[in-house]
Amino acid sequence: MEPNNHTISFYKLQAKKLKRELGIQHTEALDITAKKYGFSNWKHCLRSFDAEPQPSHTIVAHLTFTDWLSKQVNRDSPLGDLARDVKTDSTWPSFDNLENYESYLGSKSAAREAVNALKNAWKSYNANIKRSLQPNKDKIVTKTPTPKNDIRKIVFVKNVIPLHYSKRVPEKFNVGDEAWISNDGRKAIPVVITEVDERHYSFRVERPLKNAGDEYYYRLDEVRSTPELACLNRLA
């Protein structure tokens, strides 16, 4: 048994070399490497790093990645599929970086779709953390009085069958544009775009009046130009 004082990246590199040399499965190479350096198996190796103190440069957040995923289980999307898989995985670890999660999925021989879902989920999670850490002054939106007759109302749409996420194509909006969103596929809520990034639209709610001015963010394909399209592309 060799001294156990290396990084997780070192162990993964050794496993890759062993896989090429012996022509064995990736998971088998990981286990052999872990045992060589004093662990009972690869999962034991991963857990030992999980127990170490978090690096000082790690983003501090109220929600861990796993906690954030647990809130996505009702989504009809690859993110929702990943969240449901994680919920039923009794050995799912807790890391502070994407690389270790990818390594864990590799040890499980996960499909490419699952790995892609993980990468996208990690981006969304960090975008959520960055928003939560923004100073309140950056979130202040100047409200311009709107003539009473111009205030848009909630619209109820009948007989709409929501599209599957794989068939959706995002619409383009700019900051200040009016748009619509729907949570249930029946009720369309008027909103105004306040921020745009590569994966999300942030917006200010106009109705109902008790929530007017509240800000949220949805995926690009969940924000639409008409009430009908909003219900068709409801929150997944």
From TrEMBL:
<dbReference type="InterPro" id="IPR023089">
    <property type="entry name" value="YozE_SAM-like"/>
</dbReference>
<dbReference type="InterPro" id="IPR036806">
    <property type="entry name" value="YozE_SAM-like_sf"/>
</dbReference>
<protein>
    <submittedName>
        <fullName>YozE SAM-like fold</fullName>
    </submittedName>
</protein>
<feature type="domain" description="YozE SAM-like">
    <location>
        <begin position="64"/>
        <end position="126"/>
    </location>
</feature>
<dbReference type="Pfam" id="PF06855">
    <property type="entry name" value="YozE_SAM_like"/>
</dbReference>
